[in-house]
Amino acid sequence: MTFKVALIQMAVTAVKSDNLEHAVKLINKAATNGAQLIILPECFNSPYDTSCFPKYAECIPGQTSDLLAQTAKDNNVYIIGGSIPEIDNGKVYNTCPVFSPSGELLTKHRKMHLVDIDVPGKIRFREADTLSPGCDFTTFDTPYCKIGIGVCYDLRFPELAHIYGEMGCKFLVYPGAFNMTTGPSHMEPLLRARAVDNEVYVALVSGSRDETASYVAWGHSTVVSPWGDVLATTEHLETIVYCDIDPDFVDKVRTRLPILSQKRTDMYSLTNVVTRT
User: Fold this and answer.
1) What residues does the CN hydrolase domain cover (predicted)?
2) Where does residue 268 fall: left (phi above 0), alpha (psi -120 to 50 degrees), or beta otherwise?
């Protein structure tokens, strides 16, 4: 049941309609090249800028999600729709919608952990100035394996990945936009850590780099194996990264190195407490 994924590291402009048209073209290309699961980057229809989130926000279902649903159906593929600014009951979320090959909206993940960083002389960014946090774990089933979803900063919190592993996920996907300060130092180590700690495949899909943007993305979309090996990656330019995912390899790794069954639950445990709003 090996399946091919495509990580679409696309350029994002200030024009939503152009971004949507471009995303569809890249999805079509990835599907033509045999991808069965296609992943877009964080904020693919909007600049990644706190001042833009309320202006670009839309409902789900809405313009962007309807287009992705139709594109998934047209190509008979799963689409993890990166993320878009979503508005619901007056609140704005950074939300990742997921679509089936029949065009059904399977689920959506609202970014659980909001970025609040201040590196003097480097970068200051506060999503909470305009965004609200999500309050749900998000997984979906495919014929290949169960998949867990996070968005960018969610990657930094090992508890989320651990819970997804406990829920039976073999592949974790994080649409993301690491910046030029944290990306070079942190992104790959975090991906490899989440993969090794939970013995799962992990992917992060970034937009391409735009040096003129208010927030400059690191790029380097990457897939890591359950053994911690980087299976596929790229630099910062727009491209599509392809990778074959073998869910059976997860089972092989867990048999060879059974750390998940060797946890000392008599001494410690992680409690899953979910609050829904």
Assistant:
1) 3-247
2) beta
Contacts of 61 (CB under 8 A, 6+ apart): 69, 105
Active site residue 42: yes
Which residue in 43, 111, 127, 199 is the catalytic one?
111
111 as an active site residue: the answer is yes
Phi, psi of 169 (to 5 degrees): -75, 140
As a whole number of angstroms, the distance between CA 106 and CA 185 comes to: 34
Residues 160, 149: Cα–Cα separation, whole Å:
9
Catalytic residue among 52, 152, 169, 243: 152
Q: Is 159 designated active site?
A: no
In tens, the pLDDT along 185-234 reads 999 999 999 999 999 999 999 999 999 999 999 999 999 999 999 999 99
